[in-house]
Structures are given as C-alpha cells and as structure tokens.
Design goal:
Sig_transdc_His_kin-like_C, EC 2.7.13.3, ATP-binding, HisK_dim/P_sf, transferase, 6-stranded mixed sheet, about 725 residues
Amino acid sequence: MTASNSPIRCLLYPSLGEIREHVRVELFARALSERMGRPVVMSMAPTYEFLEAELAAGRVEMAWGTAEQCNAFEPQARAVLRAVRSGSWHYHSAFICRADAPLTLETLSGKRVAWVAPRSTGGHLLPVRHLESLGLRPDTLFSEQRFLGTYRKALDAVLRGESDLCALFSNHSDAHAMRATLTSYLGADAPRLMPFLFTISTLADGLILTKRLPEADAQALISVLTRMNTDGAGLEMLMGPFRVEGFVRSPGPGAPVSSPRPSSGAEYLAGELDAEGRCLRLWSPSGRAFGLDVRGGEGRKLEEVLGTAASKPLMSLLQAVLRGGSDGRLEYRLNVNGDERVYAAEITPCAPSPEDTGVRLGLLVRDVSGLRALEDPLYRLASFPLLHPEPLLELGMDGELRYANPATHAAFQDLVEKGPEHPLVHAALTWAWRGSPPGEPAPTVHLDGRYWELTVAQLWDPPGLRVFARDVTLRKQMEARLFQADRLSALGSLAAAVGHEMNNPLAFVLANLSFIREEMDRLKQPLLDGEPVPRADLEDMLEALGETVEGATRLKHIVQDLRTLSRKPPEHRARVAVQPVLENALKLLRGELQHRARLERDFHDMPTVDADEARLTQLFLNLLLNALQQMDTQDSAHNVLRVAAYTSEDGEVVVEVQDSGKGLSQDALAHIFEPFATARPNSTGLGLSVSHTIVTGLGGTLRAESREGRGTLLTVTLPAAVPVAESLRAC
C-alpha cells in the first residue's frame, strides 16, 4: 500500500467520559490531521470486545488499546506507541476509597468494589492480579463486584457510597502524585477520596498502528506522536483524552520498568507549602519546572527554588488564599529560556491532620501553553450548541431536560413546562427505548403545523440523549405534493382496468333493472285487477333483483377500494394487517391481470405493521402496476405475476412482487428508485420513487433485482409493529 488522502480511522476504547474528553479527542484528531496532511477520524468503540474484533479483522488503521491489547496485537502491528505519563511508559493501579472511610488490605473482606470493565487494565485486570498474587481471590474477598464502564463512573460510585472502593491507573506509586489524577476526574471532590494500596507496574496502554496503515504514514505518525510533547510545543493538554504527556515506541512486553525521562515540553508542578511559602513537599514528573531543576526543593522557600519571576505570582496567590480561606486560581505568563509560556496555578488549603503544626497548602501548577494556542478551535467546538441555528437539547433517560440551546426555547416555548410529557421529548425517549436499528429513518414530530425531524444520539457518561430537531416542514409539503401527483398518476393508470371492472357489474345491473321494469309494466294491470300472476314470472323478477344487488355490492366495494387509495392519510399511524391490503390491491387490478398475466400467490402468516392503510395500498398498487406494465399483453398466456408475503427470520414482514417481463439493464436498475426515471412512454416515473419513500418512511427497505430477459423482483421489508406491552412501557 502507498500513502493516500483517505482518512486514517482511529478507534478508542470506551472508558472516556462524554463531554470534556470527547472535545479533547476532536482537538487531538485535528492536531494530528494538520501534522499528517491527511484526515484523522476518531470514534469510540462501544465495548472493549468490539475494538478487539475491529483490530483482528484489520478494519482500522490505528486504535487506542489497553496494556493487554497492546501486548496481544504488538507482534502483528507496524508499531505500538506506549503512553508516557510522568516520564514513564509503565503504570500502576491504585486502590481508591473514601477519605472518611479509609481501608487497608486487611479490611477488604466483605467490601463492595466498582470495577471499570472486564478488560480494563488499570480498572480491573491489574488490581485483580495483584490481589491474587497475595493469595486473595476477589470472588470470595468482596461481597459485591460491579462493572460500571468508565473510571469516572467507578469513582462516582465510591463518592456516593454505592461502592466501598474502586481502582484507578496511577503513574507512580505515590499518594501525593495521585492528587492530580483524582483532581482531573473529580475536581473539587477529589479530596474526598484517597489511595490506600498500589499494585506492581505494567507496560502502559497506547496506540496500535496496524498494517492497514501504509508504511510511509506509519513512520510519519510515529515521528509526530513521539515528538508531540518533547519539541517545545507544550501540547500535554491536547493529549488530555489519554491523560498522557507523550508517546514512546514500545520497547516490547519484556522490557524492564522504565525510569522517568526528562521532558522539555509541557510540565506540571505539585507540592505542599506552609504559610511562609516554604516547600514541605515538591514534585514534578520531569524534575524540572520553569526551566529549572526543582529536585531537592523540600525545606526551601518557593523563591529560592523557582526564582523571583516564577514565584512572585504564586506567593501573591498564596497570600490571597490565606486571607480568604478558600481555593485560589491564577493564570499568568512567564518567559522561560526566551519562550513565553502560559501557566495555570491552583492553591488549596489542606485538611488539618493531628501531626500538623501549622497551615498546609496544596500547590498545583500546569503549563497550559498548548491549550491556549488551541483556544480558538476549542471555543468553536464549545460554542456549537449555543450558536447552532436549529434546536439542540440534551435529556436524561427519564426525560429530564439537562440543556437546551436558545433555538430550542424559541421553537418549543412549552418545553420546560411540559417536561417529559412534551411530544418532542416523548418521541426521543420512545425512539431510544425501542432500540431502533442503524439506518432506520429518524422520528418526525408534528407540532403546531410544523414537522420536526429528530436525530437522537445516545450519551453514556452520564447516560442520556442528545437530540437535534430539524424543521422539515417544506420537505414534507413537497413530499405531500409528490405523493398526490403519484396518486393521481396511479388513479389514471387504474382507470382502464377499473372501468372494465365496473362495466361488467354495471351492465348486468342495468339489464336486470330494465328487465324488471318491463315485467312490472306487463304485470301491472293484472296485479291491480287482483288477477293471479304466474309464479315463474315472480321468481324470474326476484332472481334478477338478487343479481342486481350483487352487482351493486361489487360496485360499492370497488368504490371503497378507490377511496382507500385516494383519501388523505391520517396524521398518526395505526396497526395494519398487510395481507388484506395486498388482497385489495390485487382486486383493484383484477381486470388488468386477466389481460396480462397469470397470478401466482404465496401468502403466509405475518405480523401487523405500524403504517397507514392508504399509503400501503398506494405502495402495493405501484409495485403491482409496475410489474404488470413490464409484461406485454401479446404474451399474456405465458406471463406470470408472482406475489409472495411471509415473515422473515428477523420477524419482519416481507412482500415480494416478481414479473416475467423484459427485465432491466444494470444502468436502468441503478436509477430505478429515482424520481422521473422510467423507460416506458406515457409514464411519470414517480411510482417506484414514491414507493421507496413510503417504505423507508415506515422504517423498511425496498430492493430491486433484475436481469434483461429474466424479469424483475421487487422486495419490500417492513418492521413488525411494536408489541402492545412495549408500547405501554414506553409511555
């Protein structure tokens, strides 16, 4: 393979949150695309198993894998780039508990644990292996084990008291260093949790570059990714979705534990200070900050360690925190080795402990230069919901409104008042509860004379729905005109056949009425005079009246069938049995069938469908008329129209209409469902196009197969109606 401009597909495992990390993923993809000169598209795998299946099948160029997945796929990959955190491409797992309910290894028995996922290394496999190495079996040790899907959900479960402990990946086996990781997940709630046990280390997770990726692109990616945070660009925050500071090419599963490597890019500094600004603890993953070596800074004042320029803003922040007694944050610029950098600093009062002799303050300083350089695209992404011209809202799975942009409130002014009872919210929830398959048309809501087409996306962390509402009123009006034009066309095509069908009963109705009138005129005077009338004459008149009633009834049924086709469909669908509708369509075409083909039918039991009877009649008439018109009347003795209806293995309704006509060329077959595409003179070319729209509008499919000289097969597949129990439950 050679390099190309087609997108590089990267699949991520599903342990990320829903909002912040996804924005960072988009930023990371943009940065890679700019550096590669080729689009990089990132998507989230629904499960760890799905990611492995895609890797095994060779359907992705790149994937973010767990440590185990990297080890498993490394032999057949072009390269594996391990994540570097705090200067190391190995990591530990930390057992986390609540600070107000501390645990030890000896007190784990009977506790409840929240794991991330069965195949999560830091969130399950590594801590389980550690416990087993100590002779402890999780199945008997814990009273409850749950898999929650993401690190954040596991941490939240411990915070809420639903679980007693969880596991979180840890760059170093150091409780102080864990503060930054917990803060990145929980913000102000981070001090409520604490690590109490660390496992041995393992090679880190990372990016798997598969052999689907051309060698030239693989080498370019390796160069970009391994230099991304060590070339002075300061893009640590850009790689936030992975919580890494860089990548290194994998040394192999058997490599020894790495030691921290120096980093000249983005950095952060963590520590504890006293009220005078003296460093009680000071730590940096690279050992450097502000271009200076900060190792051995304990016991020294901040100014001595960092210099006047770097420490002055921090000391001002420290004094403000001491005066106010609460957290303080500050962002400032500093010239470091001739390069202007941007730093974000945070100082937080620490909870007092019995051994404290004075005030302790936590310090965290981060280099956010790379993030500030990306503010414009970040703000564009963040402002999308606010500035999106059409309604956009986010819902909880119970219908609770979490967010709605201004366009939503302008279009649906009663949304907040009605809440989950609002038709738009109800339609979105019903759509999600049904578990509609991919490709099924979006639901449409009719409100105050306007039609809104909904696009519903599932959110996982926290669970919810993101709903886009698009005003499709003009499109619906155009579709209605198109349907009407097709309906009139179909009625015109039916005129001859129906005329013949009506002429037969009408002829003998008129003949019988004329006979009865003549007989009544002949027998009128004898009846008035009270003379006896021959019994045979009365029986002939009664028989003629019976035939007349029968003929009139046939005419009535024909008119009813035509009214079914021509009437305006209702606003809401109903549960419709397919076979009677199909039978009615065949009855309408009975006269045409007699002159063109022999009918073969193969009907089996079928479930009902959610549809409109008029639209279904129009659909089947279009398909049957199309099939009949493909067959010449000169060959009527040999022509066959086959109509089959049955239930598929998936429980869907299938209707097949097959003719023995001329068939279609491959070029004509490719355009068969396009409006006005027809090979027949005096045809509007709307029938199959409208039929396709009707079927897809019902969530089904319409397929065509044809070969010249062999006829054409049209197959309709419609989803079965939702069972009543499910409908009630959805409401």
